[in-house]
Amino acid sequence: MRRGDPEVEGEAGCSCACGAVAAVRDVRGGGGMCSVPGLKADCEALLGAFQEADTVRFERFAELWRERGFHAIFYGRIRALERNKLTKKTLDLAQQYFLPPYAFQIRVGALYLLYGLYSVQLCQPKQKIRIALKDWPEVQRFQQDLIESQHYDAVYIFRKLRVARAFHFTAMPKLLNYRTQKKVQENEFKEEFKDPSNRVNSLITNDVLEELMNIHDHYQKMKCVISTDKSQPDKALSLIKDEFVVSLKDMTLEHQEWQQKRMKFLNAKEADEIPNRKEEETSLASEGSERANALAKIKYRSYSAVVEASKSRRHRQVKLESSDSGSEYGKSQSRSKKNSKRPQAARNRDSAEIQGEMRMTEEAVTRHVGMPIITEEGTSDEEEVPLLKRKKRR
Amino acid sequence: MSGGGVAAAGEVADYEVAELYTRVFRVGALGRCWRQQLGPPDLSLAAEAEEEEEEAAAAVAAELGCAVETAAELQAVCSVDMLMPPDEEKDPEVIPEDSSLLTLRIRKKALERREETIIVDRACRQETLAYEMESHAIGKRPDNPADLVEEGELLLTLNIFYPVIFQKHKYHKPYQTVLVLGSQKLTELRDSISCVSDLQIGGEFSSQPDQAPEHISKELYKSAFFYFEGIFYNDKRYPECRDLSRTVIEWSESHDRGYGNLQSVKMEDYTFNDLSLRVGFPYLFCHQGDCEHIIIITDIRLVHHDDCLDRNLYPLLIKKHWLCTRKCFVCKMYTARWVTNKDSLAPEDPCFFCDVCFRMLHYDADGNKLGEFLAYPYVDPGIFN
């Protein structure tokens, strides 16, 4: 009963301004549509400027927003259908910067950006911001961080959005339409927006190196005990490179220095000298040199008393300012610095989570690996050797 | 703040193939997880107050854990007014002249180009229709409060593709978009799918044109099934319904074809909350024995107070592909209702006629058949426009 394929077949061939057939085809709903031209550049410019301003205050963001005239981002003679589509795409783009792996400051900037875009949109009823269930714990953690750091403006704004029911609570962040043909738009993250994703450093941390050192020492000691000459292990027992911990540490340091040089090079290459950049570079450099110091200290551990490795954030203590109005600002300033220098956030994970997991692994090592001790008489006991001096972690 | 760990990892939807489709998860579990994470104000479906009053600073202070003065300061500093320029005339139709935004500069150029090339710049009927469909049910509330959608209900967005009738549809597949509630049964969706093959009338009626459309296929062949993740959901509400999936299951079991256990259950026993499926993955709806529609669930989310809140309107059609209808060959005005083959009176084969022209051409005043031809009632795919 199916009719044959006819010669005459028309689609919506209207001559009006809706973009005719193309529009009918493009209005196919779902993520992965062609993006709004110029929007990514504008948003990244705004977020970049916010990052350089090195603050998380909404006032500053609002200034930058007003400077650029962002309130007009939805202006133009656009009809309702097109405007809905445009607004959805805009919110979708901004929402991506709100989640990891972006740096803390960028994420706060994205929150403000979402607030701004949601408030100035012209659609009636307003288009909503989508949050997926898989991202919700991350958002919660972010909120918690903001509250603890007393960034009240950010907390207030998120709460305001929530009270206004500006969110759609979804299964996935984008609509999925099984578009295998359409090339998935690679959202190339700006390198500067991410925390320098430093997988080497996240794997070989101070603690890991310390632990390796401990185990290595213990191993050496045990080899000595069972050897004929008590002061050094038998030749037959030398199965590993003795200096491997030190060379590992050296390699890590080298890698880190290389990365910093590369970052500096990229920064210098990109824009003209902006005064803020220098600040950023020096602070980056100082962070790097601190880590270098920390690792160097581990190297000389055997000759000196144990020095608590300085974490990159240690120097940035919360300082209490004297004046009233400045106090909150001061606190949050230093706190924000602290947070923005969060080290080694691996992709898609909060560093706190990683640290938590690292802690757990360390604990697991301590508890479950009972390091056997070989006593003089040759019997081996199972004994818990405190492998790691618990470091207070912030 | 609410929010301990989310439920077991297997229950949280996440990509299986990045940006394409997700792992399998239970729809109902998603709803449950979200409801656990959120509080009553997030889930509330109450209509928005006309003027959003600023909450008392004290309430804000209490929740944020700060001083009341800080809260008041926050309300001032973070208000929307801070985002607007102080004194400018704000006309949303006009793009500011000296905008520094790349987006606006590009848009301005595009608009200027449009102004030059297009004589009359208004919405065509397809655009009007598309917009109407998308927005006609927004915020609708039922008269009867029993018909109100519940808070925390899940809303699924499905793309139901048309069966491939025209060759060009193989490359750009047209579809309709339907919203369903999580608590609705599969049968409700099945009843709402309007497909042209349901209206087909079998048989040749050249000798008795008046007796034609009595039994449309929809009434004759009632069987149908959905296929989601290895389970066939068959419509078994009527005695005439047969298990169309049995053929597939038997085929799969006959040899080790690597399809695992395919099951067959009754469609009317399941709601969408009961299903386990992936978002973004193509599934199947089959009816009339061989009319197959691909179904993709593009989105699942919690219902919002701006959505349509009248249960009776769901499944809700919000998008439809416009197909031009074929017109009568003679008058070129009315949609074709008859098609003839081997027609000595017609200039082409097959040839389409509206009812009036068909009778005028092929039958004399007494209703006798003139000439040789075969005539079939025709239902145009564009009939649902």
Instruction: Please list the strands of the largest sheet of chain B in the order they lie side by side.
Output: 8-7-6-10-11-4-5-12
Total strand segments of chain B: 15
Shape, principal axes of CA atoms of chain B: globular
Shape of chain A: elongated
Radius of gyration of chain B: 28 Å
Average pLDDT taken over every residue of chain A: 69
- Strands side by side in the biggest sheet of chain A: 1-2
Strand content of chain B: 15-25%
Q: How helix-rich are the residues of chain A, as a percent range?
A: 40-55%
> How is the quaternary structure best described?
heterodimer
Q: Can you tell me the residue ranges of chain A where pLDDT is under 50 for at least 5 consecutive residues?
A: 1-32, 272-286, 301-369, 377-394
**Tally of alpha and pi helices of chain B:** 10
Largest sheet data of chain A: 2 strands, parallel
Which class do the helix and strand fractions of chain B yield?
A: alpha+beta
Strand content of chain A: under 5%
- Spell the H/E element sequence of chain B: EEEHHHHHHEEHHEEHEEEEEEEHE
Description of the structure:
The complex is a heterodimer of chains A (394) and B (385). Chain A is mainly alpha-helical. Chain A is built from 13 helices and 4 strands. Chain A has helices at 20-26, 39-52, 58-68, 80-96, 104-120, 136-148, 152-163, 199-203, 206-226, 244-270, 275-299, 324-340, 351-368; strands at 129-132, 167-170, 372-374, 380-382. In chain A, helix 2 (39-52) crosses helix 5, helix 5 (104-120) crosses helix 7 and helix 10 (244-270) packs antiparallel against helix 11. In chain B, 23% of the residues lie in helices and 18% in strands. In chain B, a hairpin with a 3-residue loop joins strand 1 (15-17) and strand 2 (21-22). In chain B, helix 3 (57-64) crosses helix 4 (68-77). Chain B is globular, with a radius of gyration of 28 Å. Classes of the chains: A mainly alpha (394), B alpha+beta (385). At the A-B interface, helix 1, helix 2, helix 3, helix 4 and helix 5 of A face strand 2, helix 1, helix 3, helix 4 and helix 5 of B.
